[in-house]
Amino acid sequence: MSESRRISISVFFPCRNEQDNIERVVGGALAVLPAISDDYEIIVVDDGSTDRTAEIADRLAAEHPCLRVIHHPVNRGYGGALQSGFRAATKDWVFYTDGDGQFDLGELPGLLRWIDDYDIVSCYRIRRQDSRRRRFYGWAWSTLVNWIFGLRLRDVDCAFKLYRREIFDRMALHSQGALIDAEILARAHRAGRRIAQQGVHHYPRTAGQSSGSNPRVILRAFKELYRLRRRILCE
Hints:
The protein has helices spanning 22-32, 53-63, 78-88, 132-149, 180-190, 215-234, and strands at residues 8-15, 39-47, 67-72, 93-97, 120-126, 160-164, 195-201. The chain is of the alpha/beta class.
């Protein structure tokens, strides 16, 4: 683990109304990160939550100097939350996962085996623990995105990804919604960035409510894909 401890890493969680999950996911990061890094930070992006997410996150930040909280006074959407997290990250590598607790932060160290040869580790969900309808939406979306942008990714929207932070220094992002993962991966692929894939376990949501299968969220993603596909392909 001596080489792994030299990794410089930012870990962030986009959150909206995750008052029952945020302490647990931050606790998972606090348990894992000291074992893999001597230079790390944790960031919570509170995307306009209307519950106690902001209050709990601020309390955790007061207790742990490595933790910062970014507050969006109003909801900016998933893409807006991820953009804030990437802009705020200061370390050499940046990892994000959602604040809903459906992934095990204990699987983060397993991604480090790729960092010498790849710029991105894009994970895919093993036995995805979502409804049949949402699994179908996910498959259809990944298939469409792969076809449009020439990718070969098993799970475009899996919220368990590790990036070399400097790729964002020269990447202009436009998506404010669910297209954000596809936009980043498509732009990175076109820029010649190397993308590794690894399976991670996925767990049922135990608290809070997902918006991923909301028809408005899905419609917004398709609208953004239609508007941005030519820009992404031509830049």
